[in-house]
Design goal:
The chain has 188 residues and is an alpha+beta fold. The chain contains six helices and four strands; from the N terminus they run αααβββαβαα.
Length: 188
């Protein structure tokens, strides 16, 4: 199976399977170490028990990732097909799940051009205004100035596609790759 990169449509499904497999291996290793220590000494009071308990720390951290990936909504393939055709040739990211302290934001597509970031979410429960504010705050923290952020809601797919057409006229300013990298860093 080819490794998927963050920003590709099927990355969340790939990463979910990977994180689940990694978590199972971590817990299995910790349990195996405990059993090995118990079988060899016939008591829980040995050094391998300590190693096993310490091995539960990365396993538990990985379990948190599993929970976050399982909470992530499933992005629609029909929406992806339509948006990828509309955004062809532009700097775009798909199936992004941004997390903040208060809310999480599933965004189906981000496009960056000419100092503009536009996004589209297919999920009605996504608070687009809060998502825009979250992204603006992170851009400001990372030294990006004069960047316009607009997230289109579930009923605004046509408006998103129209805005994509308008953004095609902008010349690339060279910071698109840095902005896309930042969006990947703040996404699950």
């Amino acid at each position: 199976m080819k490794k998927k990169q963050k920003g590709e449509y099927d990355y969340p499904a790939y990463q979910t399977r990977f994180v689940i497999a990694r978590t199972v291996c971590y817990f299995a290793l910790a349990i195996a170490i405990f059993i090995l220590g118990y079988v060899s000494t016939r008591t829980r009071e040995n050094l391998l028990t300590v190693v096993s308990v310490l091995g539960l720390l990365p396993a538990s951290k990985s379990l948190v990732s599993v929970i976050m990936y399982l909470r992530m909504p499933k992005f629609g393939s029909a929406v992806y097909d339509r948006l990828s055709a509309a955004a062809e040739g532009m700097s775009a990211l798909y199936s992004m799940y941004l997390t903040s302290y208060k809310k999480n934001f599933p965004v189906s597509c981000f496009c960056v051009a000419g100092g503009n970031i536009i996004g589209y979410t297919e999920f009605k429960e996504c608070d687009t205004a809060a998502c825009e504010e979250h992204i603006r705050g992170l851009l400001k923290q990372n030294g990006f100035k004069n960047i316009t952020v607009k997230i289109f809601g579930a009923n605004e797919q046509r408006n998103f596609e129209d805005r994509l057409t308008q953004l095609r006229r902008f010349d690339e300013q060279g910071r698109e790759s840095e902005i896309l990298e930042l969006l990947c860093n703040i996404s699950l």
